[in-house]
Design a protein that fits this description.
By secondary structure, the chain is of the alpha/beta class. It folds into three domains: 191 residues, FAD/NAD(P)-binding domain, CATH 3.50.50.60; 133 residues, FAD/NAD(P)-binding domain; 84 residues, Immunoglobulin-like (Sandwich), CATH 2.60.40. Helix 1 runs parallel beside helix 3 and helix 1 crosses helix 9. The longest helix has 21 residues. The radius of gyration is 22 Å and the shape is globular.
Length: 412
């Protein structure tokens, strides 16, 4: 067993940003554990640009964005064990991991940063009926085949789900010479960012059909066709609307799930609104000394927010390592019926805090109020709010009460 001040699980944008910021705050004994052969996470396969405008003030491709953090971590001589799988995290901050080079390893950590990211929902998760032929991929897997392995996954494509990666793959497949028959979304609105609807679909004349989804998959060895049906406002298929599309490839972009098996193993409580850990204003989970940030905490719309959130986490983690504890956060943070994915779930009222959330459906001319007791701490008017876009509101400690819970109210 080896003692390490800060063990960071995940060498993607969140883990790297947290490690670099911890080093800058005087924490020298840091170790990153990464299951892939190289750090940088999913960004290696995201060759499109659009990253970095918020964090660096310029647009970068995924590999270039990641390379900036990788180079800085290397310059600071922060060790990273790659090709290493973390098997267990305990409530007393022991980390068990395994690699082909080092075998079984045990680390006793002063603090643990959970930065495992998220995974894609599969066909099984959304229960699409039909046969099980080759040619059905999640969007991330299809992207990896094309961008990392230089292998074309198909020539006649249907895309289910209008998540950002699904729309980006619609454009990518078109640029590679495939025919994208359409993008189909079961919700009555696009799930991804409006800019991706414009740049990835409209600019390439790829049709987007809302309130439609796949209700049957057909084919024996290889996918031969899918059946698309219209859905009503109760999310039920409308009889007589079925239409068959001949295709050899179905790409699924139907949501992301925070990768939290290790989080629950460590004893952290779950936030039902985010499907990630319940954290306080310091990004500390309900287990002292265990922190979480990035897509393992809640799925972000912009990668820049992942890095910025991990850097903010480093403030609390460094303070915990130096002082042995953090101030109690006893004030609950709650949202009304239009609020989704709200973090943090607890605050102290003594420090500045950034509240992040989404709305549950597209809204126009809405008002956002952050309220403690009878006091409106902050009010913001928004001409438009979309579920695809995370809303972040910064609050000053001087504006907060230390006795009343905080409620986020969205009204139209």
């Amino acid at each position: 067993m080896k003692h390490v001040d800060a063990v960071i699980i995940g060498g993607g944008p969140a883990g790297l940003a947290a490690a670099i910021e911890l080093r800058k705050k005087g924490i020298d004994d840091i170790l990153i554990l990464e299951r892939e052969k190289k750090p940088s996470g999913i960004l290696r396969q995201c060759i499109h640009d659009g990253f970095g405008l918020t964090r660096f003030g310029e647009t970068l491709s995924g590999p270039k964005y990641a390379a900036r953090f990788v180079r800085e971590a290397e310059a600071l001589q922060i060790p990273c064990l790659t090709d290493t799988t973390v098997l267990e995290v305990t409530p007393d901050r022991h980390v068990y991991a395994s690699s082909s080079e080092h075998g079984m390893m045990e680390f006793e950590a002063g603090a643990i940063v959970l930065a495992m990211g998220c995974r894609e929902r599969t066909r099984g998760a959304i229960r699409i009926p039909g046969t099980r032929p080759a040619g059905v991929y999640t969007a991330g897997v299809a992207q990896a085949y094309i961008n990392l392995k230089n292998k074309m996954v198909g020539r006649k494509v249907v895309i289910l789900g209008s998540g950002d990666i699904g729309m980006i793959m619609a454009r990518r497949m078109t640029l590679e010479g495939a025919e994208v028959l359409g993008v189909f979304e079961v919700q009555p609105y696009a799930s991804g960012l409006p800019r991706n609807v414009e740049q990835c679909l409209n600019d390439y004349n790829i049709p987007l059909s809302l309130s439609h989804t796949v209700t049957d998959i057909r084919g024996t060895d290889r996918l031969e066709s899918v059946v698309i049906s219209a859905f009503d406002e109760h999310m039920q298929p409308i009889p007589g609307t079925e239409k068959e599309y001949e295709c050899d490839t179905l790409i699924l972009s139907v949501g992301l799930i925070p990768e939290n098996e290790l989080t629950w193993m460590a004893g952290a409580e779950k936030d039902p609104g985010t499907s990630g850990a319940a954290v306080d204003e310091n990004y500390q989970t309900t287990v002292p000394g265990i922190f979480a940030a990035g897509n393992v905490l809640h799925v972000h719309d912009l990668l820049d927010f992942v890095s910025l959130e991990a850097e903010a986490l480093a403030d609390g983690a460094a303070r915990f390592l130096k002082e042995g504890s953090l101030p109690a956060c006893n004030l609950a943070v709650r949202g009304n019926e239009l609020v989704s994915g709200l973090t943090p779930s607890r605050i102290s009222g003594e420090d500045d805090v950034t509240v992040s959330f989404r709305v549950r459906r597209p809204l126009r001319n809405c008002t956002i109020e952050l309220v403690q007791g009878d006091t409106v701490v902050k009010r913001r008017r928004m001409p438009k709010a979309l579920p695809a876009e995370m809303i972040q509101i910064k609050l000053k400690a001087s504006d907060l009460s230390q006795t009343d819970d905080l409620e986020v109210k969205v009204t139209c």
